Amino acid sequence: MSAQVSNVALVTGASRGIGAAVAERLARDGFTVVINYAGDAASAEALARKIEAAGGRALTAQADVADPAAVRRMFDAAETAFGGVDVLVNNAGILQLSPLADADDELFDRTIAINLKGTFNTLREAGRRLRSGGRIINFSTSIVGTLLPTYGIYAATKAGVEAMTHIMAKELRGRSITVNAVAPGPTATELFLKGKTPELIDHMAKMAPLERLGQPGDIANVVSFLAGPDGGWVNGQVLRANGGMV
Asked: Is residue 1 included in any domain, yes or no?
């Protein structure tokens, strides 16, 4: 699949962080990008203007991925504007740390709703609507490998995403659609840095043999590979982009 202007990529949670880097990179690759956001309209619009100023095409689409009806409307809007969707990048997610014994029901339910049900909601629409030859790229986490304390609920949602990734790759047989997941390690985004001491950040940066935090662009490069022509033979896989941490 070549990344021409007619190819459309929908990136969830794309107003900032890794999602914004992915949207920018896919726009540079030639995709028309649908920038999904939950609440930060200003950042999403600013990103769309930035992409268009660089010669790309972008549309913003507000939707809470946990809401199936909102997800359907988002796909409807993309189809109305551009005729269809070729690439889905499931980046939207939340992270709040807590030992399992201390976690309340609200934290569990909200994390499941966005990280797991949200991914299911978009996968369901993509399974019905994605054009032949398309790509689905989910987001997991390298925590599924490191299994660090306090990450239990978050890791559980991402383990579920990995399971759906492997299975959906098989379910889409005959449509030339690949389904893969990217599992970042510690990456220098607001989501990761918030609430951490400089000492903890430095410690986590040193966990990888390459001795640094990932950058959003590092992760966007992997998504670009999977979405582009060179990634067409990779299917049903989880690529851990973490500098060798696990």
From this structure: no
